[in-house]
């Protein structure tokens, strides 16, 4: 329902802008050096901008395409909620990602050391050094036995009847 509250292509990437208050719309118009947008009756209020989004969004898109993402961020930060739209490499190299220690290296027996994204939720008792994801069936016996309390003979019976996959398959190691 909010316009603009979208991603826009820039000369060298993308930016997201979020004008959830009228003051941000006015600041955006000024930063875009597009006073005509601020005085156009079709774009005066949130309902006006939404009703005329098919006209407004192409105008904004054309304006954002004239400068690089970094230029727009310099013009908008502190005035209008905005951020770069990052690709995976950029996101992983982001200073906040590094500062929060969000990337963890996990050894894998087939692929070597993998870089994975750590959970952003930090609580007491969190797993700080996660292990790799298990292979299919690798944790079946532990889940059935340790967590659900099945006996070894019950698990063996399930396995022999094919309930846990192929009857000849044993626990993965």
Layout: helices, strands, pairs:
Elements: E1 5-9, E2 14-18, H1 22-31, H2 35-39, H3 46-51, H4 53-64, H5 69-76, E3 82-84, H6 88-93, H7 95-99, E4 103-108, E5 112-117, H8 140-147, H9 152-160
Antiparallel strand pairs: 1-2, 2-3, 4-5
The name of the CATH architecture of the largest domain is 2-Layer Sandwich
Strand order of the largest sheet: 1-2-3
Proportion of beta-strand residues: 5-15%
What is the N-to-C order of secondary-structure elements (H for helix, E for strand)? Answer: EEHHHHHEHHEEHH
Instruction: Characterize the main sheet.
Output: 3 strands, antiparallel
- Structural class call reads alpha+beta
Query: Share of helix among residues?
Result: 25-40%
What count of helical segments does DSSP give? 9
- Separation, N- and C-terminal Cα atoms: 52 Å
Give the overall shape: elongated
Descriptive report:
The protein folds into three domains: about 5-85, formyl-coa transferase, domain 3, CATH 3.30.1540; about 85-135, no CATH class; about 135-173, no CATH class. It is about 40% helix and about 15% strand. The two termini are about 50 Å apart. With about 170 residues, the chain is an alpha+beta fold.
Question: Can you describe this structure in just a few lines?
Answer:
By secondary structure, this protein is α+β, with helices and mostly antiparallel strands. The protein has helices at 22-31, 35-39, 46-51, 53-64, 69-76, 88-93, 95-99, 140-147, 152-160; strands at residues 5-9, 14-18, 82-84, 103-108, 112-117.
């Amino acid at each position: 329902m909010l316009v603009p509250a979208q991603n826009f292509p820039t000369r060298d990437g993308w930016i997201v802008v979020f004008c959830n208050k009228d003051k941000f719309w006015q600041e955006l118009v000024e930063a875009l050096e597009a006073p005509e947008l601020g005085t156009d009756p079709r774009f005066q209020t949130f309902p006006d901008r939404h009703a005329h989004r098919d006209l407004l969004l192409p105008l904004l898109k054309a304006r954002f395409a004239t400068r690089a993402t970094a230029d727009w961020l310099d013009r908008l930060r502190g005035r209008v909620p905005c951020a770069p739209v990052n690709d995976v490499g950029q996101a992983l190299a982001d200073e906040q990602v590094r500062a929060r220690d969000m990337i963890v290296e996990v050894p894998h027996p087939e692929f070597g050391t993998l870089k994975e994204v750590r959970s952003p939720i930090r609580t007491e008792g969190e797993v700080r050094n996660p292990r790799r994801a298990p292979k299919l069936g690798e944790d079946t016996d532990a889940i059935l036995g340790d967590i659900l309390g099945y006996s070894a003979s019950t698990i063996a019976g399930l396995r022999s009847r094919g309930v846990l996959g192929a009857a000849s398959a044993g626990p993965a190691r």
